[in-house]
């Protein structure tokens, strides 16, 4: 019988008068993975932060209940422990991996300094011994060239490598419990598959329990033993992963399952027109090296390499590929937010290539961007009426006296109430904020919207609402989209055609069904093989591979 590692009983978490978690009880055993799922605001992260007693730093408090951690045959109530004793447990007995490693790592310290600190603090090692142990920790999480990585800074690593560094720090002291809060949400499918396999393999090696928080039901099917479903701070269902996927009992659980995109379900897009809205020919973008004062023009990184794509009126081109392959650089180069090295870009009959800066503004009206993080895209000090009409004011397409009515028409167009125009960004959910970003893009009646990972940070039900909105706008107004995403199932649902990008080049393009059913390029096949299926019967991680090879991400 495996040992119980964690018992959470009747946990209540509050922010002021608002109760974010309402009487939650969970139990987790060694070598077990419990997935905690639910929409944004359901209480998942609040629960995780409460277990580590970090909730107080976020303005919350534990209002009731017990959080008991196994310790030498007894249980410690973490909810009642003083801060000095908690500090000895964090990173030692209980560790946490957060969603965004770049914000969790100190940008001014080397990787070696940050990983070494764990050994100095919790193992009492000298700096020299800790540095050596840090190299071994990086090697254990299959980071290539660990000795060289120790001297690098976080910005010099890819997203996948940064997440591995966070896992190395979390596992350095062989914790009893690992809390993983959306650790793969921002990663492409191949990197995600590697991280999931890594966690499962190391879990088998050291016997730790894992509390895995995610909104990706494919990941749940891949890694979880049991699943707890949260809604508005309440657990509505808990079941074995196979039972939950085959026979979900709670209506909310069934809605989550129904909203999960599944590769192979096909698309609901309409017919595209014949008119070309976006034409990109031979586009290349290079990032110059700053380490060499007299570097030649050919030095540096060729992030986009001779790319040519076309998007027709009323068509969506899905752009997929691994992190660092050049997708976002291509998007920004099209609008000359990043200056390309060469190539030709035409949007709605207007050639952007070679235009002087003063003439770019009017041409950019025909194409607008929607970014991944809507909160970072919206000025928190401005009301919605000013935010959604900003492009229209810049381009002079609406009179000052008409701005309020115009703002109301924009927010209702994306499914929000008229009174939303007098509120501020923090008063909206993540999905609502993304609707505001789309409303802002629509304010200048663009012919093309470039959506750069616009739904990747949203839970499955909200992401489906946003993609449904995009499809409705396309059918009604003939909008074209360049839809960038690492979620291939979402891309399939919304796209007419798919372009696959690898190391700055488009290696395959064609109709959605053709590329996904009969991929011609080996890299496309690799991407498709890495997509997790929301069906635990098809999971690939049940028996972790011994001797997992080092993989460069």
Automatic annotation (TrEMBL):
Domain of life: Bacteria
Keyword Oxidoreductase: no
Record field: catalytic activity: glutathione(out) + ATP + H2O = glutathione(in) + ADP + phosphate + H(+)
Principal location listed in the UniProt entry: membrane
Membrane-traversing stretches: none
Alphabetically ordered keywords of this record: ATP-binding, Cell inner membrane, Cell membrane, Hydrolase, Membrane, Nucleotide-binding, Repeat, Translocase, Transport
Domain ABC transporter as annotated: residue spans: 6-257, 285-528
InterPro entries listed in its UniProt record: AAA+_ATPase, ABC_transp_ATP-bind, ABC_transporter-like_ATP-bd, ABC_transporter-like_CS, Oligopep_ABC_C, P-loop_NTPase
Compartment list: Cell inner membrane
GO molecular function: ATP binding
Cited SUPFAM superfamilies: P-loop containing nucleoside triphosphate hydrolases (SSF52540)
Topology within the bilayer: Peripheral membrane protein
Top EC class for this record: translocase
EC number from the UniProt entry: 7.4.2.10
NCBIfam families assigned: PRK10419.1 (NF007739), PRK11308.1 (NF008453)
Subunit structure: The complex is composed of two ATP-binding proteins (GsiA), two transmembrane proteins (GsiC and GsiD) and a solute-binding protein (GsiB).
Role noted for this protein: Part of the ABC transporter complex GsiABCD involved in glutathione import. Responsible for energy coupling to the transport system.
Family to which the UniProt record says this protein belongs: Belongs to the ABC transporter superfamily. Glutathione importer (TC 3.A.1.5.11) family.
Protein name, per record: Glutathione import ATP-binding protein GsiA
Source species of the chain: Roseibium sediminicola
